[in-house]
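[worker-b] picked up task from shared queue
[worker-b] task type: protein-ligand structure
[worker-b] ligand name resolved to coenzyme A; SMILES cross-checked against name lookup, match
[worker-b] sequence length check passed
[worker-b] input payload:
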Amino acid sequence: MPDALARGPRVHLRPLDPDDEAEFLRLVRRSRTLHRPWSHPPATPDSFRELAASRPGDARLVICRNEDGVIVGYFALGQIVYGHFRNAYLGYYAFEPYAGHGYMREGLELVLRHAFGALKLHRVQASIQPENERSIALVRSAGFRKEGFSLRYLKIGGRWRDHEHWAITIEDRRAPHQPA
Ligand SMILES: CC(C)(COP(=O)(O)OP(=O)(O)OC[C@H]1O[C@@H](n2cnc3c(N)ncnc32)[C@H](O)[C@@H]1OP(=O)(O)O)[C@@H](O)C(=O)NCCC(=O)NCCS
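[worker-b] inference finished, payload out:
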């Protein structure tokens, strides 16, 4: 497996690997109730291979538990643009039976360390459906600020859904904003 990109007390961050296919697809099957209606992760070998194929401008990452290496969650830093923007769009989902144990919170901290460190980004944005309270709580607890709202912004599960835009910049990391 690839080396860890960042390590915390309970979990570490590493790139998604083609060899994760069987474990990843098993976790997706087991997590269907958790993921719907918010996320539709790859559920077939072909869609997993498409996800795992490396592409410039996209970092596909997994959070693994330190004690046994099991995958507990997934994060993507997508559409990475440098130049005057240095921005990425963040996507994520936890896996059952590991959701609700604080692994995603710790994992998000590692993702941000990687994004603002090795990847030299300036800003990370997560777009979240307003009803997705668990997801909003996760980014808010990591210091993201709500920046805006777009009607029918992303097509999820076959329908165009409204989304809130939550963002964090490197300056927010240096001087954390107090959540409202
Ligand atoms: C949103 C999502 C990723 C959150 O994952 P999670 O595993 O619940 O997140 P975490 O456990 O790391 O953190 C959140 C909770 O764990 C709790 N927690 C933190 N540290 C903990 C610890 N050491 N032990 C136990 N619980 C802990 C937090 O208090 C928080 O609880 P709360 O929900 O009561 O506020 C998950 O719900 C999910 O996959 N949802 C479906 C997909 C999705 O919505 N993706 C995002 C689309 S925008």
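[worker-b] attaching auto-annotations
[worker-b] The two ends are 40 Å apart (CA to CA).
[worker-b] releasing lock
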